[in-house]
From TrEMBL:
Keyword field contains Transferase: no
Highest taxon above the source species: Bacteria
Residues in coiled coil: none
Positions of transmembrane segments: 12-29, 49-73, 85-107, 128-146, 196-216, 250-268, 280-296, 303-321, 333-352
Organism from which the protein derives: Aedoeadaptatus acetigenes
Name of the protein: ABC transporter permease
Length: 383
């Protein structure tokens, strides 16, 4: 019983720690409830889809897919084409999806094949791939777009006559959110009320992704991914082609990241052309780890809880830092430190657990080689 409690406490240590930090921050900052609920609602709608895109590669044993910026770049290219062609509103989002999807599939296949050649180092390799593709992405938008690829919207072009500007105000901003938007206002106290905008269609899209993940886990491909994630040797002996399954998991994740980035950007309303995808992987990875996931196991509740806790920290800590030190940047520095720290600690724990499991497997093999019992003195001397 004590061992089981210790195991659960260790597994949920990160979300418990974050809850304590946020509670202390709330006690210090005492922000208005209306502000906190409004901000966390916006951030949940904006970021949850991207975080959910990390689950399927984890099921397949690929760890956290730090290559989701490839999908984010695909979505951004789709939005840029839609903006350049003058297609606005939901139609512009549809065009962005139609353009971004094949690009994301192509990049996902490329990434999956590379990661198959880097078994055991998938996470750092996917991160390096994201940096590599960022260079190709910048080459396309800075030099090829407007010179080889014709441009129609002159307001997007740089002064030199080709290349996309650093920041673009999207004509597709809030295109999904505004399809069906409900405003709820309810009193909390005699002097305070909470005003929340609920983008129903965006929330339904996120809910559909959750249903898809639950359904996908029950399909043959989902079971194959789970088997490959548990043991590639045994799954291979069972007739599962692990390389193909691993590539498919990365392709699905990359395509979902493409859609997630489109949802994220239409909610913000502006596109940072060359930096918009930079934090996609880090913040999504930190969010799912904060929710209690690991690089070997993740679920929808981990993603949703982690997104809420991680972004509550965004809202609360700068205010708490301003009150404690007189400088809001102190809270921002602490938040950045925690963000990178969570990912670092998770990767260290993953490496430690893998070494521990390998050592336990070696000891088990040695016991089996010795007949399942303790070695005799003669055997010890011989060894």
């Amino acid at each position: 019983m004590n061992k089981s409690f210790t195991s659960k406490l260790s597994r949920y240590a990160v979300p418990i720690l974050f809850t304590i930090i946020i509670a202390i921050g709330l006690w210090i900052a005492k922000p208005p409830l209306s502000y906190v609920t409004s901000e966390i609602g916006k951030r949940m709608v904006r970021n949850t889809f991207l975080v959910l895109s990390l689950i399927i590669p984890i099921i397949a044993g690929m760890g956290i897919n730090f290559g989701i910026p490839l999908g984010a770049m695909s979505g951004q290219i789709g939005l840029i084409f839609a903006q350049d062609w003058g297609i606005t509103g939901p139609a512009g989002i549809l065009v962005a999806v139609l353009i971004g999807t094949p690009i994301a599939i192509m990049l996902g296949k490329f990434s999956g094949h590379v990661l198959n050649r880097a078994r055991g180092r998938e996470m750092i390799t996917s991160m390096m791939l994201a940096f590599f593709m960022l260079g190709v992405y910048m080459l396309f938008l800075l030099y090829l777009y407007g010179s080889l690829v014709p441009m129609h919207n002159q307001s997007m072009i740089l002064s030199k006559g080709y290349g996309i500007k650093n920041s673009i105000t999207l004509t597709t901003g809030h295109a999904i959110d505004n399809i069906l938007l409900y405003n709820i206002n309810f009193p909390v106290t005699a002097k305070q009320s909470v005003n929340i905008d609920i983008p129903v269609v965006t929330i339904l899209i996120i809910a559909l992704l959750c249903v898809f993940i639950v359904w996908f886990k029950k399909t043959k491909l989902g079971h194959d991914m789970k088997a490959v994630g548990m043991d590639q040797v045994i799954s291979g002996n069972a007739g599962i082609y692990s390389d193909k399954v691993r590539v498919q998991s990365i392709v699905i994740s990359t395509v979902l990241a493409c859609y997630g980035q489109i949802i994220y950007l239409q909610n913000i309303g502006t596109l940072a052309t060359y930096a918009g995808q930079d934090q996609a992987a880090l913040y999504a990875a930190a969010s799912i780890l904060v929710g209690g996931a690991s690089v070997m196991r993740a679920s929808i509740p981990n993603a949703v809880l982690g997104t809420m806790l991680f972004h509550l920290m965004f809202i609360i800590l700068p205010q708490a830092g301003r009150i404690l030190t007189g400088d809001a940047m102190m809270g921002e520095y602490f938040r950045t430190f925690i963000s990178y720290g969570v990912v670092t600690v998770a990767l260290i724990m993953h490496a430690y657990n893998r070494l521990k499991q390998a050592e336990e497997a070696r000891q088990e093999n040695r016991r089996e080689a010795l007949g399942g019992g303790e070695p005799t003195s003669g055997e010890s001397a011989a060894s």
